[in-house]
Amino acid sequence: MTAILKRVQRWWALAIAIYALDWITKQSVEASLHYGQEIPFLPFFDLTLRYNTGAAFSFLAEAGGWQRWFFSLIAIAVVVGISWRLSKIGHTHKLEALSLTLIMAGAIGNLHDRLAYGHVIDFLQFHWQSVWYFPAFNVADSAITVGVILMLVDSFRSGQKGKEHDSNK
């Protein structure tokens, strides 16, 4: 058991640091803005305070409340599954471990919001000339997105290595 904990401790430490950043930024925005308020920072970026009771892009946001528990259970399963995977590959597959850690950190951040508040706090909003708005998101969502991108890069790199190995036969 000690060996397993050693294999995952650095990845969990990173996940907790990202979760802390997510929590601090959400608390700061909640303390500084009222719901729906927008503070322009750049011509294409605002800080705003939004609540999302659904998943990505407000999927199932109007589902009546059951989605809170459904998405919470999914997040718990993701954290458990990723922790198990990290215990297997944490020392040997660094890029995959990093990508999974980012995804896990984001899942923990949004899980906290769902359990504590019944919604996820979002505050980063990109738009184009006040006509087109990308759905607001947060640090946890950003970590998940970067984690998925890194996972795709790792998958592509692994696929390329496999093709090179096959062509050398």
Any overview of this molecule?
The chain is of the alpha+beta class and 169 residues long. It is built from four helices and four strands, in the order αββααββα. The protein has helices at residues 2-32, 66-89, 94-117, 139-167; strands at residues 38-42, 45-52, 120-128, 132-133. A four-stranded antiparallel beta sheet has the order 1-2-3-4. A hairpin with a 2-residue loop joins strand 1 (38-42) and strand 2. Helix 3 packs antiparallel against helix 4 (139-167). It is globular. The mean pLDDT is 87.
Please describe the structure with a list of short key phrases separated by commas or semicolons.
4-stranded antiparallel beta sheet; about 65% helix; alpha+beta; 4 strands; about 15% strand; about 170 residues
The strand line-up of the biggest sheet is 1-2-3-4
Distance between the termini: 40 Å
Q: Helix count, per DSSP?
A: 4
Can you summarize the main beta sheet? 4 strands, antiparallel
Task: Give the tally of β-strands.
Answer: 4
Q: List unreliable stretches of 5+ residues.
A: none
Instruction: From the alpha carbons, calculate the radius of gyration and give it in angstroms.
Output: 18 Å
Give the overall pLDDT as a whole number.
Answer: 87
Helical fraction: 55-70%
Quaternary structure: single chain
Q: In one word, what is the shape?
A: globular
